[in-house]
Amino acid sequence: MEKAKKDRLKSAGWRVGDATEFLELSAEEAAFVELKLALADYLREIRVRNEWTQSQVARRLGSSQSRVAKMEAADASVSLDLMVKSLLILGVSRSEVGRVIAKAA
Amino acid sequence: MEKAKKDRLKSAGWRVGDATEFLELSAEEAAFVELKLALADYLREIRVRNEWTQSQVARRLGSSQSRVAKMEAADASVSLDLMVKSLLILGVSRSEVGRVIAKAA
DNA sequence: TGACTGTATGTCAAATGTGACATACGCTTC
DNA sequence: GAAGCGTATGTCACATTTGACATACAGTCA
Fold first, then answer.
1. Which pLDDT tens digit goes with each residue over B73-88?
2. Three-state DSSP class for B62?
3. Strand C lies under 7 A from the Cβ of residue B66
4. Is the Cβ pair A28, B99 closer than 8 Å?
5. Could you tell me the pTM of the whole model?
C-alpha cells in the first residue's frame, strides 16, 4: 500500500493491534477500509459537483456538518450504513453505489 | 412492490411510520432495504454453496449462529457494515460485493 | 417416540455509532 | 488584522448494533 494512503488511514483514526510502526491490516480489513474511502471520495465528489457546502448536505441528511466532514474523511466513527444511506438520499442510485464499491482502488 | 417482498420486510422487523396497512417507505429507504436483502441472499448463497452451517460461518466471523441467521434474514438489527465485513471475510472480493449491491432487484 | 442437527427469534449488557456542540484551521475580503 | 465562510476535529449524551444466550421450530434418523 502506498504511503499517502496509509497516512490518510492513520489520521482518519484507524488503529492497529500490534506494536509495529506500520498499519498492519488483514486483507479483509484493508478491503473494507478502501471500500469506505471510495464511498467517502464519491460523497465529496457529489457534493462538490453540486456546489453544496457540508452544512447544506447535513441539512438534507438530517445530520450535522461535522458528521458530513467525518464521512468525507472516512473517519473510523462513521458506518457504512450512514454513507450508503447518505448517497441514496443525495440521489445516487443503488447501482451507482454498487459501481463505486466495486471499482478497483 | 410485490406482496412476498413486503411480507418478508415486515417479518424482518421493518417498521412503518404511518397507520396504513402497507409498508410506506420512501424511495431511498426502499432502495436501502432491497440492497440489504440482496446482500443477505448472497450471504446465504455463499454459505450454502460451501456447505457450511450457520454456526460454522459464525465461528469464522467471530460471531454467533443467531447473528448469522439475522444477517441472512436481513433483520433490521444488522448493519451493512457487518454484512459487508462478513462477505469479505468469507472470501468475497470487493468488486463482487459491489456487483451484488448494484444488481437490479 | 425421542434424540439430534440446523435454523429462527427474543432478550440483554456491552460495544459502537449518532447528531450536536464547541472550537480550531485555512482562506478570502475588506 | 478582523470578520466571515467553509471545513476539520474533539467530546459527549443518547441511540443503535453487537455477540451471546435461551429457547422455539423443523427436519431426519433410529
1. 999 999 999 999 999 9
2. coil
3. yes
4. no
5. 0.86
